[in-house]
Amino acid sequence: MITKSAFLAVIVLLITCKISNAQDDDAKFQKVDDSAVSKPKSNLTYEYQYLNDAHTEGIEKSFLFGKLKTEIYFKEKGKFQAAKSYDTKTGRLIKTDTIVDFKKLVGTTTTYYANGNPKEMEHRDTSGAVDRYSAFFEGGGRRIIISYRDGKRNGLTTEYNPNGTVKETGSYINDKREGEFKFFDIRGNLITKRKFKADKVVK
């Protein structure tokens, strides 16, 4: 039977051995020169242009490899108001956004063709949900306009020909064609009418 004093002696011996081993291990470590460690460098830099003394209104610009990447316009105590994104290789404008705060996009997001003309426009209501979508031909003319509600097509949708005449128009309810749709030729002359019920032709 191990006495209490003998048990304590064993514990002390174990602790002493661990300390001794740790000291021996310390001798194996070598200090690494921080300057010799290769650290990744960020090529993204920022520039601020303030429009008032309080620094609550202005433009934040980001650059990648010295090329303009984004411009963010802010005011009202630093809240984002609009943003522009650029192609760092060509310098052309890719996208613009209207922003109310950090969590919710309200307003219009527009993407652009290489020639600078709008490609697509997505409008969001005050809840941040998309309520209108527009797409354009590269030459600048409208291609389609769609009304949305609750994430689905609801309301009038109109599709256009490249020459600007209406190609097709009619209304949707919850992503399904409902009511009368009209179809036109390239000159804008009415070809036919179709009546839909829950996306099925009824007349």
Q: How is this structure best described in words?
A:
The protein is mostly beta strands and 203 residues long. The protein folds into 2 domains: 62 residues; 96 residues, Single Sheet (Histone H3 K4-specific methyltransferase SET7/9 N-terminal domain). It is built from 1 helix and 14 strands. A 14-stranded antiparallel beta sheet has the order 1-2-3-4-5-6-7-8-9-10-11-12-13-14, with no helix packed on it. A hairpin with a 5-residue loop joins strand 8 and strand 9. The longest helix is centred in the N-terminal third of the chain and has 23 residues. It is elongated. The N terminus is likely disordered.
Task: Please render the helix and strand layout as text.
Blueprint: H1 4-26, E1 44-50, E2 58-64, E3 67-75, E4 79-86, E5 93-98, E6 107-112, E7 118-124, E8 130-136, E9 142-149, E10 152-160, E11 166-173, E12 176-184, E13 190-197, E14 200-201
Antiparallel strand pairs: 1-2, 2-3, 3-4, 4-5, 5-6, 6-7, 7-8, 8-9, 9-10, 10-11, 11-12, 12-13, 13-14
Distance between the termini: 101 Å
Mind describing the biggest β-sheet? Answer: 14 strands, antiparallel
Total DSSP helices: 1
Using DSSP, what is the number of strands? Answer: 14
| Order of secondary-structure elements | HEEEEEEEEEEEEEE
Mean pLDDT: 81
CATH architecture of the largest domain: Single Sheet
Low-confidence stretches: 1-37
Gyration radius, rounded: 33 Å
Q: How large is the share of residues in beta strands? A: over 45%
Strand order of the largest sheet: 1-2-3-4-5-6-7-8-9-10-11-12-13-14
User: What is the overall shape?
Assistant: elongated
The structure class reads: mainly beta
State the share of residues found in helices, binned by percent. Answer: 10-25%
When the domains are counted, the total is 2
